Amino acid sequence: MSLPVIAPGATLGVLGGGQLGAMFAVAARRMGYDVAVWDPDAEAPAHQFAGYSLITPFSDVAARKDFAQRVRAVTYEWENVPGELCEQLEREMPVRPSSRVLRVIQDRIEQKTFLRAHGLAVPGFYGISRPEELGRQTLLGYPLICKTATAGYDGKGQWTIGRVEDQAAVQQDLTKAFRPGSRWILEEYLSFERELSILVARGADGTTRTYPVVENIHHDGILRQTTVPADVPAAVAEQVATMAREAVQALDGVGVFCIELFLMGDGRLLVNEVAPRPHNSGHYSLDACTVSQFEQQVRTLCGLPLGEVRLLSPAVMLNLIGDEVSQVTTTPGMQQLLSEPGAALHLYGKRAIRPKRKMGHITFLASTCAEALATARAFRSHQVLPNP
Ligand code: ADP
Ligand code: MG
Known about the structure:
Dna Ligase, domain 1; D-amino Acid Aminotransferase, Chain A, domain 1; 4 domains; four-stranded parallel beta sheet; globular
């Protein structure tokens, strides 16, 4: 049975106008679609690529009507958009991934409970709704990690608690942040061997395409570097792909998903989280794959056949965070490495440079990962300031 296709010429809506929304908009326009971007921040990068921009809070009733009238289908660039807005839009048009999927993923406690209930291994965890419960916790031992159940990203809203003595200070932070309805997830802090992730695109007819497994390095909860393909045995890569497909199928998700996992020293794989959208660790696909994660997002949204997933070259992607974005064009050593064969530069056009803010990325393609990693290391060695 063929599914209804949204043909080029239509306007696609995206909620959220950061770099992920911008890259979606570029992919959509390249495929002949127009794009309406809704982000309350007038300086959000995706507005530059929008045929129509809405710059008002997501709660604006008139804007909701306006948006719904202009677009044929809606996606979002990250999971912290209002689920209730997606539900409302869904009554009139496809929203992909659906609001039901979004609701499960938006809440870290619900997400991990869902994954565990579907047989996927996750770190030990439980949810709390009052700061005092942190002080009484004995189930997980130490170290542990406490995360806000909702609205966290790039390591924001997270506290690592190494020893019982550190707990009081974190409890104070939670007390200060407490609002009615606040919840946090406590997780065992894992000394993993590697962090891995993988993209899965899934169409409305259930067809899936799985990208290669990549290895990620985070500092302070922020992604710094992605290497593709990950240097793991074939059996591990296979298992990652199987778990990722299972997670997306269990959600009955339509769209692009990224599954983050921890590989433990004893070979166990635990799912850290699922993102219902293209992911920073999938940016390599823009330069190193036949069909990027953003093109797949457009295809899944519009009911087009999914694209082939072929890795054309090993690659290393480095995020440019905070002031690194100005260094890249002004530091001689870095400038020189931009001329390396296979170096692709992406700058997001964000005006305000802030520490820990993702400002751009650079991807080094090379015939082997070792070569790409060597170039990435050389690039880093020219950095003027230490990593934020
Ligand atoms: P987000 O990406 O939404 O900020 P994550 O849960 O992915 O939140 O956490 C960010 C990073 O923090 C992870 O990529 C990982 O490096 C680290 N981290 C998260 N949870 C754990 C854990 N249970 N044990 C060890 N490290 C963790
Ligand atoms: Mg994450």
